[in-house]
Amino acid sequence: MTTNLYSQAxxxxxxxxxxxxxxxxxxxxxxxxxxxxxxxxxSLLLGVLGLGAAAVICAQSYGQNYAAFGGGFxxxxxTVVFEEIILLAAGFSLVLYGAIGSEERMAGVVALMLxxxxxxxxxxxAANLMTIFLGLELLxxxxxxxxxxxxxxxxxxxxxxxxxLSSAASGFMLYGMALLFGASGSVALSALTAASVAASxxxxxxxxxxxxxxxxxxxxxxxxVWAPDVYEGAPLPVTAFMSVVTKAGALAVFARFAxxxxxxxxAAHLLLPIWIVAGASMLVGNLGMxxxxxxxxxxxYSGIAQIGYIVAALAGxxxxxxxxxxxxxxxxxxxxxxxxxVVALCSTxxxxxxxxxxxxxxxxxxxxxAAAMTFFLLALAGFPPTAGFLGKVFILATNxxxxxxxxxxxxxxxxxxxxxxxxxxIRAMYDRAPSHRVVDVxxxxxxxxxxxxxxxxxxxxxxxxxxxxxxxxxxxx
Amino acid sequence: MHHGMGVDxxxxxxxxxxxxxxLGAVACWAFGPQLKRTAGALGSATIGASFVxxxxxxxxxxxxxxxxxxxHAHLFSWMPGWNFGLLLDPLSLLWVLIxxxxxxxxHVYSIGYMYTDRAIARFFAYMNFFVFAMxxxxxxxxxxxxxxxxxxxxxxxYFLIGFWFHKPSxxxxxxxxxxxxxxxxxxxxxxxxxMFSRIGSISFGDVFAHVDRLGSLLFLxxxxxxxxxxxxxxxxxxxxxxxxxxxxxxxxxALIHAATMVTAGVYLVARCWPLWNASPDAQMLVGTIGGxxxxxxxxxxxxxxxxxxxxxxxxxxxxxxxxxxxxxxAYAAGVAHFxxxxxFKALLFLGSGIIIxxxxxxxxxxxxxxxxxxxxxxxxxxxxxVLAISxxxxxxxxxxxxxxxxxxxxxxxxxxxxxxxxxxxxxxYYMFRLFFVTFLGEYxxxxxxxxxxxGHAGPGGRPAHAPGWLMAVPVGILAVFAxxxxxxxxxxxxxxxxxxFAQTFPPExxxxxxxxxxxxxxxxxxxxxxxIGIAYLRxxxxxxxxxxxxxxxxxxxxxxxPLVHLFYFDDAxxxxxxxxxxxxxxxxxxxxxxxxxxxxxxxxxxxxxWLGALVRSAQTGLVxxxxxxxxxxxxxxxxxxxxxxxxx
Lengths: 477, 648
Prior knowledge:
Low-confidence stretches of chain A: none
Distance between the termini of chain B: 53 Å
Number of helices of chain A: 20
Helix content of chain A: over 70%
Shape of chain A: globular
Number of strands of chain B: 4
Helix content of chain B: over 70%
Low-confidence stretches of chain B: 1-7, 450-467
Number of helices of chain B: 29
Oligomer: heterodimer
Mean pLDDT of chain B: 83
Radius of gyration of chain A: 21 Å
Order of helices and strands of chain A: HHHEEHHHHHHHHHHHHHHHHH
Strand content of chain B: under 5%
Strand order of the largest sheet of chain B: 1-2
Largest sheet of chain B: 2 strands, antiparallel
Largest sheet of chain A: 2 strands, antiparallel
Structural class of chain A: mainly alpha
């Protein structure tokens, strides 16, 4: 074994991951020495600093194209954009936890979130089966712990459910990877593109099992069943974390697989089930929202539908579709996290304010907060001229243009259903009738306000200037 | 960006011009109770500042940079082809100067006029909002922004016509104006749909550079745009809202229904000249409608007794001239008439506002008379306005009206030429009728104007017949401009006016018509003098003045029925559109809606609730159920891939 097996450039490519991972260790160490009542801020500050540093390093590597570690981790515009989305969502979730989470577990949560983040970042750049699995499991292990953190029976239940079901999905995925390796004789995704591979039945079965695992992480129908329960049980900031980071990581893997790892000609047949489940997610997710009384469950279903839209953008395999998917993912990040921030602001220490009834009359108690929530919900529903609307129009256009009009039709039907569900929440906020169950807004949560403002600015900026599609999309090569 | 419109440069002062009035509106609205009457000063100050900023932008607006004319400021880009920005080129510069300049004078005047009104802050909030909306309309560099402004001015107009919402007639008039204006908004929307589907852009520059892509739809686009223009500019048959709109306070009539908003149609046609130039049919249509409106408005003006309604019909008639001008291809002339009209019509309205104010809200000219002695200031100002609108040499209206009339001949429309000359005569007749009946003879009313505060609440107990300087100064300034504004047109092709618009409108090299410009002037002048002569004989001779009450009563009794019924336009609209629409509404409201629409909605709601419950019922919360679902899904996947792989 030589010392120069990997060059300096290889290590430079994964520096952001290491920065995030090592920050987690620093946070844990610092917690040992920090004063009792200041450790919340120490952990939070260190965590956000680490994420910020990683984001800066990441941004600096923008424009480089390099396959590090023999093709295990590919650096490029695609990777950087996904890494930045993940870092942003992670930072946001940290701030949210700092605002409403419990004091004594702060350092542990921050460390776990950071490790999960580095796993998701690994997924963003992973280009062989081993790194994909490594990243996925790093993320999942952190999430198992995070889900069970809250001192509630539902939290423990959620963690256990997630552990069992996710392990099963990982099993499917690992078995699929083994078959893919059997078909191509290599762990590299690029090896799958060979024409000879497509003839192998191993390859097809491997793809099927691999995609089952991936679809589970994306929480597409019918592998979505875990999401509402887990979202409801997990602490609110962890739910926010999962709703973006897990999906972004899995989406990066799926997009790389769909765009760069399939033998030409086989892609349409290979991926058809994915488009079908994406379409089904739009319907089931939006229908599922109708009957919900818990806002976190409602957002879980909403997320199922939204990820359906995003995956649908990739149908057709055009580079335009990929850009639109990323545009919508960024928009979804802001809209969704913004909604979570509002819910966080409506929560108290005892109760996470996740019942829709807690929002009753919010428009009169906290008009600004209700206005922000209305805006996020309208954006999620796809009202013009919000970023949500733009994203949907783009996805519709690319679907119709590439011969997947039926996906476009499902998107429209799903959106129509979702309007009803989102408006139910908005109506509740502006309901004058006194509710039997009004939880007052937590007195001071400046950090949550801050994250709310960031999301609001994010959606607004994406809607208007300068992050408009024509400006932001060329960033993704 | 092509076609000389929308430079890629960046001129931030445009934001200031555009947003200052909005700031004033918001401040007057939010702090109305605190501001009280200072709201007027605040509102006026923001408009005045906007005017100054516009003057400062003169150089940038009239210069060419990078082969394109005017100053540009980007707002934001939306989807591809949807770029929003502001554009100040000579055409919009002219409009912005009038909107903010004349608007400022009217604002100052309003402080005096609305002094005793308790809702003065609300009034200025609306007025400033109107100016903002109007600026949005003319500063926009694209059709969608223009339509937004178009809709907003309609809204502002609705607020202001219905300002005295305790009067049912004001509310009805506001509603009528709004509905007719919305007809126009929808028409413009359709034009935008067509243009976007064919050209793929909403910006003026892109659309005008690719007019050829519209193909056979060009006429339809022009027609839709013109329906919008006709609704806003009170052209036949969409003019019926304008006389009713006089229910609003008089400064509103001056600002919205004379100087600015009603000329938006002229702006639209002038702005879209590349479309009209490419479609002679559309030019013919617009020119003819404009000419007809000029004539009909003038004829209806003869039969009115309400001073503001006379002015309303004269506005309609004068805008007919402008539309005729820009429609038939004489763009610079049509726009010039807008320019002079803004001064003299605002002057006439504000002058009549002084009279109305002093006479305790009396608007019927039959109960006026002899005001020359009582209100000498109003007399001299109104005289300047009447001379200007009648087209007497030396006054502004003369130059611009002449240019329009002669332009008709140049562009080969002899019939419109004749209509223009005839209308000029009728205009002179009814304007001098108004003037003689109002100012000469003996006072026929009941208000003791010399007594302070008699008949109406005189502000602060000041003498009711002397306008405060707040009202007098703006009127005086307008009188000066109504006199001299036309001088920029002297010099034909080398006039300052022609040079100002040299790069905006297409260069004209027209054949010399058989009747020269000098002869046209003489003919028009003779006809105008005839009109004045008839008015003199009927209303201003010694005998006529002595028996004025009896003669006026006889005239109103013998008024021909078509004139009394305003040529039955309202009745026609009532029977052709309103009644059928009400019937249709009745049918839908009684039968279709409750059974079909509501039924479908109910059914959808019930079934989606049911489906939602179905989805929820799968969510039992039991891990074994979830595993079952996951395994079932995985089995489906495996089956598919086994088959798909096997088939290959």
